[in-house]
Specification:
heterodimer, A: alpha/beta, Alpha-Beta Plaits, Fumarate Reductase Iron-sulfur Protein, Chain B, domain 2, FAD/NAD(P)-binding domain, 5-stranded parallel beta sheet, 23 strands, about 30% helix, B: alpha+beta, Cytochrome-c3 Hydrogenase, chain B, 3-stranded antiparallel beta sheet, about 15% strand
Amino acid sequence: MAPNIKNVLQPFSALKHLGQKPHTVRYPDESKPTAPRYRGFHYNDLEKCVGCGNCAAICQNAAIDMVRVEGVEPAVGDSGLRPRIDYGRCCWCGLCVDVCPTGSLALTTEYTYVSDDPGSFLLVPGLEHPEFGEKLSFTSEEGYNLLDFHRVPMRELDPKERVKSFAEVVLGYVEEEARKEASRCAGCGICVSACPDHMHIPEYIRAIAEADDLQSLKVIYDNNPLGEMCGKVCTRRCEGVCVLTHRGEPVAIRWLKRFATERFDDFSKVLNPEIRPKNGLKIGIIGAGPAGLTAGYYLVLRGYDVDIFEALPKAGGMTMAGIPKYRFPEDSLDKQIRYMEQVGVRIHTNTRVGKDVAFEDLLEKYDAVFMGVGFHKPYMLRIKGEELPGSIQAVTFLREVNFGKKVDVGKRVVVIGGGDVAIDAARVSLRLGAQATILYRRRMQDMPADPEEIEGALAEGVDIKTQGIPLEILPGPDGRVAAIKYGMAEMVPDPKGGRPRPKLIEGDEHLLEVDTVIAAIGQEADYSFIPQEYLDKLKIERGRIVVDEWQATSIPGLFAGGDTTNRRADAISAIADGYRAAEGIDRYLRERRASAA
Amino acid sequence: MIATTKKTTKLFLGPQHPGITGNMMVELDVQGDTVVRARTHVGYLHRGFEKLMEERLWIQCFPIVCRICVPEPDPNEENFARGVEEIAGIEIPERAKWIRTLVLELSRLQAYLLWMGGQAGSIGLYTMPQWTVGDRDYILDLFEELTGGRVYHMYIWPGGVRRDLPKGFRDRVLKVMDYLESRLPEYDRLLFENALFIKRASGVGVIDPSRAMEWGVVGPPLRAAGFRHDTRIDDPYEAYSEVEFVVPTRTESDVYARAMIRRFEFEQSISIVRQVLDNMPEGPVYTGIPNPFQWRVPPGDAYVRTESARGEFAYYVVSDGSTKPRRVHARGPAYVHGVTLLEHLLEGANIADVSMIMNSLGTCPPEIER
């Protein structure tokens, strides 16, 4: 193309722009408005943040460190750490915001910072420059988060079907469901601090996601020899703090553990744990509950000779005698106990310490003794008519049913209490053909029972009467229980700041006709098997044995764990005690040997 | 002045400001004003992104890819996202495809504005860069509003786009489009129809059309050589099959022809942006991807192509089924245009034309080296 005169002259037309207002803003007199979605400096709501560290884990520049911050204390479900951003590395991509489960982390419209101190470019958002909180721009939005807040639902038997038998209610995940659920875990490990046993939760879940179930089983067995039991009935404190709960449903940690352990029919064929050579030392264990079994298992692995003495005809403690079979089938327990016996744990059932063997003989004969006897002695209602035939205790009732004894509860049952034992007793009564009513003195939301259990009970047709205080059990003409009289209660605030207390409303009394009254208001320990001279030396506070960090009691060589030492009174805490006691006993005996040499 | 001596002098152009965005050096053997031999030297901007990605989770690669090409990051984001989606079998929402198309066209417009400034600047027309870089900022304002970032948007990610359009965004885009359209006659007067540019650019840097395919030439240089080749038409992606536009060609295959191709496409992109805004469906813009910490993209590979402002831009993404890519390879136009083709075109060129030729090829050192 050949240029002509027009092409020569027209560029000069640009001169007309001289004197026009320029594009640029006249900083600092004018400032350029920043877009509402601008990705500038971070801001972190320190209260909302739980220190899970997902932001640090996703940062591809490793610009985020989790650090201790003054004024933020670690707590269950909160690592106590907060992100610190290195603005020499940050690329402002905002991935940290989009993986924040709580939504505490956001980017702001602030983007200028000038300093000659390189150290000042490390910033703990929220702590430093809290005023950035007024200028949030790129925030964590629902629907754009990289985490999946929806749990894979668990399939259960239909409520109409399940009351007909003791078949297990929960059906368990199939492989595809388990892999999908496991892959929701962000691996932050906040759950570990909430687990009394500090199980390696992210590791075994990751193994499930990677379809390596054996690895998962090995990780579970690293500090819990009753993983399958926990996979079915654990109180799952872990799930309560899972970071996904902040905006959705927690990872189904319990069901995943169940899946991994149920993948194997015989643990002895796959686990092959390393067992140290026998060291010639003998440990006696009183009670084959979760605490005793756990201590026994890990002591055997450490080369000790272990004898467990169990009063009941079968090992398992409360998990055998107390948990109904529709929650924890017996063959599952058998499988786990069988494996422990294969490893070398000797369990002497039907052997009650204090009757069949003397407590003092155990202390004499064994190098150390662990005591995990549980709470089997029920609290009494302390109301009139409690001694009548037809008024029974839940723990006794459940034990008898679990051991196959025929129990006749009649057509109508009332269960007094609001804990898991009360729910269990009511649901077992349904399965025995009775109508079941739960009478609880506080409100539904105050019930200490697992919400899932309450839901299950309601679905099966258990009637829950709340704010009802039992007053008297009335006999019929045959001398058996015929009715229960209860009064309605109103909730009054607790002067000490605790949960509201029920207060009886005078005159608002009701009568419920029943055939059986089952009391389920708690249990306590029974130390009658311990001779008085030892009881004198044993430090017991408010019914619980005082132990040190290694579960050692005030009597040298005597260790204790489970419900008799911890307030949480659940299986996983007992397992944790047993695990710690195994370490404690090992330390104790090694020290004893060292000082003798 | 005609060279009367056969004496060869070495002249090093660059690595700072060789007339293009980024650092590279061209080693010139000159006799008089004429280049007799040119050798390109790169290595100033190698950041090893392809290797870095092999050590990062899939989602962690998404903020990296945009940095492969500074002047035009969005085709990288789109390519990576689409590659991963293809392997993982993720179907993204319809609206996300339209938004991606919008982003890619806005990206093309701003890249052409930057190119216009560079092309004019390389022959000493310094008013043009002032104008186009200023006008480009209006597009960057739009990007800031849409994505939160002006240059590196980190907006297109596997599964769709990161956020929906802000309220009133459509009107603001249209306003900028109207403005840019009104500026075109002025660009014409100042650059495209400027006698100086016509004289300097015509017949210079001619790519032999018979060898263009062999060289692997793509984009505006290929179209200026007479080939009707545009990935948006040949292998439509996102919403390109639903917008109307034509592929311009010319036959001169010189710097001027390449400039005019870009000028035509600039106008056409404005039209595409308008079509996209008019026809964009409602709906979600992001479909959830698996948990990024555990996301295992199934084993497989994907070769995806985008038409960037500089030509066909492609990504080869390979997964071995792990949480990290096995390989991510970026095949951009600049490697071919800016290294091998450039050496060839510079032989016989005037020293003063070297930068202009480099610019007309869309040479982008950060993309060459990655």
